[in-house]
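Quick illustration, no need to memorize.
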Amino acid sequence: MSQNDRPLVGSIFERKPSAPASAPSTLNAIRSKTGFPTAQHRSKSVFARNRETEAQQQPVAASSRVTEPPVVKPSLRTQGWISSSKDPDDGDWRLQISEENERRVARMTEEERGEAQRDIEEKFGKNIGDVLRKVRMAREAKQLEKRAVERETTHSQADANNSVESSVSPAFTTGERLLGPPSPSPIISSASTQPSTPTRANRKLRFADVTPGDIHVYESAPPSPRRKPLALLPSSKDDIAVSLGQWNRATPKAESSSEPRLEVLTPDNDFPAASSSVVHDGFPERGTPEDIRRRFFPSLPTGDPSLAWIESTPLPDPAAPTLRFDLHGTPIPPTLSATLPTHLGLHHHAEGARAGYTLDDIFLLARSTVPAQRVVMLGVLAGVVRRVAGMWRGISDMSDGLEELRGREEEIRKRAVSAGAEAMNERGSVGPRAVELLWETLVGWDEELMNVDGVELQEDPPNEVSYSQAGEGTLKGDAISTLPLQFFLSQMAKMLGTADLPHLSLLQLLAVLQRLAMHSNTIADEIIDTPLLVANVLRVFILTPIPPSEYSPLPVPAAINLLTTLASASRVSASKLLDPADTLLRFLTSSPSSSPYQTPLAEALLVQTFRLYTTFARYGLYAHIATTAAEPLARLSSYILSSECHSRPLLTSYISLLGAWTTCASDPHQTTPPHEILWSQISGWGWIADVTTVARKLTPEPADFDTWAELWNTEAIWLEGARYNGMRGGASEREISLARLRLGFTGGTEKEVVLGAMSSLKRLLSEIPTGYDAGRDLAFYREILRSALVLSTVIRLWLACFAPDNNPLPEPPFQLPFSLLGTLAILTVTHPLLSEPAAIPHYIRPFLRPLVSFIVNYVWLSRRHPNTSSSLWVAQLSTAVMRCLPGDEDAARDMLDAIVDLIDERYLSEHGWGVSSEVWSRGGVHILKPFLAYGLAPTTDFEGEDASRVRVAPLFPTPRSLMLTTTQRLPSRGFTFMFARDWTLLPLDHVLHSGTSTVWQHLPTEWDASETDVTRATLMLARAVREAVVANGTPTFAMNRAEVTFSCMKVFMLEHGQAQGAPSTNGENREEVFRDATVGELMEALLRPCRLDASSNGLSTSTSSDAQDNLELVAARFLGTGTPFFQFYTDFVTLYDGISFGHQLFAELLLPPLAQRYAADYRKLLYDDTAHALGTVRTPVERVIGGSVGTFLWPAEHAQEVVGAQLSLLVGRRARVPVEGFVRWMAVHHVAANIWPDLREDATLTDERGRKLLQSLVNQGEHRIVREVTLYWQRREGNVVLPPVCFDLEPARRRSRLDWVKLWANGYLLDYMERSLEIGRI
């Protein structure tokens, strides 16, 4: 121990008696008349009997008054303990030791003295000299005092027969020898019944020489809050104090000797290390586990497991977690964790030396069998999860001190969900605290998502198992997907059935159920199917007493919201909720002004009820409630339209419900069951008048954008339904609406709303120029949604004002800023936010749907514009089709039909090209409609199982979508655009997969086209659409080079697996499709813009290329993940070798994979494995398909097998005939680049390889081939040098190459190279 660690009070020892104890006194026995000791009655105290004895011995002294103060005399315990004539401290042993030490010091040299002094100072401190000086002064003063006391007490000691001599032990000083433990005290006589301990007079206590550094100040509170801390003042320089050393328990006396054991106490051995078990003189060192066992547990053997608690505390593990939490779940800094007191309740764990609980401690104690402890730990875990969730969301204040847990958020969430689910059914306080933990883990984790509708919140595919090296399986996916749902939901049903939880816990349980329902459609269906779960929700939260009493619970609107979420998951779930929904009629019987509930609660209940009815109506379900509750709805309508109602959500939900029921009435055959609501009924109820009345209550502020959008959408639905259900095609309805709309959009509030929405959408999109911004919150994207909804619905309303014959009107129905709308539509369709929807978080995807709806509606508006050409409209339709998302199937079908109807013989002639009349006689592009429409229904075939049709409800339902809709939520997986840029080639995919594609089973009976007819029509559609898109300024939506190339490859692959000469369906001999003249012309037209001569960088040496212009990436959409493009290309090359007969286009399609960006396997396949077929590939450089010829030249080929194959090809050992054109040029380039140092790019192309290649070339090649390779040169920047210029090397480089050859060649090779590289020599 260091000097500052010395204890304040040292060790205390009792002396062993120096003489045997005296025999008991016989005074009382002699004075007894009977010869027996006098009986001592216990009624008298010891002090009373002593006074009587003294009075008998000194009667005179007792009768006289004492005039002098009594002299305090030390009580003597044992006679002869200390001789009156000689003090033990004055013995000769001290003088002898002192003299011996002086002689030893005298014999020491100066170096030995200095070394000894340094050892003493290092061991006892530099102030040891002062301490010893003070000890000597204190000892001398004590000896003087003792002599004076002994002279005064000599007479008393001589007269006392039974007196017991007492001695004060010498001062306990550091470095002195002390006697061992004393012998037992003798039995004292009855006349001397005073305690055997020394009297206060001769007990002396000294303090150590304390410095401020010796005092330990503990900042924490004492272990018990009731115990007051003792404050010690630091010592001053004038104090004279001697350290008492450190306290040690007395060591048991050795059994083999009765002599006391002497021990020298020093600061270094006062407190031995706890881990030491060294035995001295047969005894273990004090304080060690073995010492404690011998003294307190002698009957237990060494190493007994029950004594593990006395073992030394192990050293802290460096790998152990340092992050600890308090009882609120707040991280405790490591520096503070070691100083906090124990009364805070933070030390009830294995490592009691540190305050706070690690995560493992918390999860362990959260399963404690002690309910109180479990409650506390579940609360701590809830606090931890709250902070971890804040860190996961990026809240800086919540992440302080949690850096150690970064990256483990989902793991902690899963463990917390498991702990809460395990404890949720416990009684007492454990259950509510477990529900709170579940709320924090499932709801509070991403609470902002609770207001997101229309999408599954599940991210990762569930039920995937990963196996570790130990073979242990762990369930992957998010925390909710790992729940044992069947058990969990059944427990929730029981807890809601008993309803013995606090009201807050019940609300939290309802929120947890809501979050589960929002997670996935599968979980929502399980909630519906769990027995009594929905029924208990209705009973606890909705079927409350009416009117409510002071203590009865009130209905909870969130419970109706849960039903809406469940209904939106699937049509099946919605059908199962129709009967429970009847209970909501209780909220329609009275208006909020006369409701038994407070107005805000009554309005909230109506809002949620209307939303549930709207959800049903989107499936065409439960529309009869409009007839059943017609009278209450009329009263509610009066309240909603009155000035008494100020709730915008109530107004918006009511208008939305009217629009949904109007859609059902537009075609009553689409409802389930049919004719649940009729057009005549809604006309009689006068809903359209209610809609027009609402407009007068709204303002142009953004807060009313949602209501404006629902208002205009409902009026558009009304006008569209009137076309087919009203008199004269709804002429009177249109006249009434147009009279009002023209006034409002000319200079009224409606105009301000449109201009405000346009300005808002343009500003918001400009703030995220790169697309999705994770730094923006949901409110930002919700504002985009509102603005786009306003523009989409106002355009739909504008289009609904046209008659069903689509005849042009003399003027627009009402005024709109058409040019500004067009500019904004172009900005929206090309914005990066809509470029990759799969990369956008799932909860943001619903906000994209209004943008797509705005684009689609604008395309239909553009057709009505007089300046829109047919080519422009085809480009707009094609662009809008490629922006359609799941749920836009109806809109996409209408646009595809419009494109197919527009591209006819007249359209082609207007654009300067055409096809044979045979194509039109076979149906033209109309034969493609079944194939294009078939791809509009996505499937859930993610796991290779039987696919089931899934139709997401459109953003605004249509009569056609009512019966087809299966869900109203976007899928969390497989979310992407329905059509890619090569959507026009979809029919060709079905032809290639004719053996497995089910579209052939759904073709119309009159459909009788052949493979050639489908191929012609497909290529014609692809060419027309691509040229229109490029010509009208949106080339990014046209098929790129790789997509066109792969599409043409698929035309040739139609012959793969076909028996040559097999008859066609009409019995005639079947001809290869690619040999059809029309097919060849269309493929030539498609490939023309993709060749080097059509590219602005075609002759550039640049190696950069578009990342999307990749055949492997494009082929993956068609082939899937299980078939690599290399396999497809291998079949393609084999097919060329078998049936091509040198077909020019076929040969051109072999060359794109030879670019250096692709793996060397492609080049090896062509140059090595099928080199015999390259003799027919005579494609010139300018007809090669590619963006830049530099991608084929650089970097130089590194693969030895490929270079060797190219050399063999040049010397004529591979091909049947000499290769020509582009293939020959590539072979010469890469062989030369591997030989000549001036063409090499890096050190991987060594001189050794170049020497061997040159020797093989000279030995095997013809003079013309050798000359081409020897004199070949090429640029690395700028434009490439084409043949024959690239075979004429300048003189300086010739000399350089010859010098290189002279370094290693000789004989014939050197002579040959000198002749070949000689200037002016051929």
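The beta strands are 177-178, 263-264, 279-280, 283-284, 324-325, 331-332, 464-467, 473-476.
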